[in-house]
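Input record (one chain):
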Amino acid sequence: MKTSLVITTINNLNKNLRHFVNECKINNWDLYIIGDRKTPINSNNKNRFYYNIFQQKKTNFKFAKICPENTYSRKNIGYLLSYLNGNEIIVETDDDNIPKKKFFDAIKLRHKVKKVTNKNWINIYDLFVKQKKDDVWPRGLPLDEIIKKKINITKNKIQKNFFIQQGVSEENPNVDAIFRFSRNRINVKFKNLKISLGNSLSPFNSQNTIWHKSLLPIMYLPVTCTMRCTDIWRSLIVLRIMKINKFEILFFGTTMYQKRNKHDLFKDFIDEVPAYLNNKKIFEILEKTKLKKGKKYLLFNLTKCYNELIKNKIFDPKEKKYLKAWLNDCKKIIK
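The corresponding structure, as predicted from the sequence alone:
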């Protein structure tokens, strides 16, 4: 399956980004590095994988013309470019995640795995940590769900297609600022495990995520929330839409590790506060939202979810403008 990798960055072509460039070339993956106003990469014929703001606006995408500067949501433009250029699989990551060799292995949709049978929130990292003493939770897990609980798993394996696959990144994984404040040093090792989330709930991020092109409409990263919320809130919306279609998400470890870019932890904390306060409320709102079953209703369901969340003051009403542009772009390119 033709595969692409999407990254957004405000950094130069550092050693890690150059590694992605080389490996994508070797493995015949398309690469889309989406820049922002602060990105110092020089755009020239040698860097055809790089799209600066001016090149983004020259595309025919309405979203690219109105997306604000200095926002992680510019990554949406990379998703659209990937689909438009015929990629069946869209992989996304960040510029401070370092791939292991197996990251570039051929991607399969079909897997034979056990699945979680819990019906509510779980700490998916509990299944992946190598040592029980590693008390770690994913960014976006409601804080009152951090307390350890039993995770039930099927005895037998199921075989099915997974249109979303979330890889866990070890060493300095995707955790929240509260976790980081409480640790002097973070060095988490994860098991090489594959498991279906089933009907349970766990946020997933944009750090090492594999999407099938058929789910392009729901890949949308919202604009009018903080950077630390955008991929998490997307995941909650996706979980709801996946549930109505009886699709499941595969979690796997571990094809990446993270050498985290420099962050202001207190700013991260402030940006995460809306998630601490609203993640459970968001899913409760979405559970009450009437959706339609079937992939042909992805755009309809996405619109319904955002309308309800805007009505409940989770998102700013301006989100409708950006969402409308995204929906128009999707309708234009989806075959």
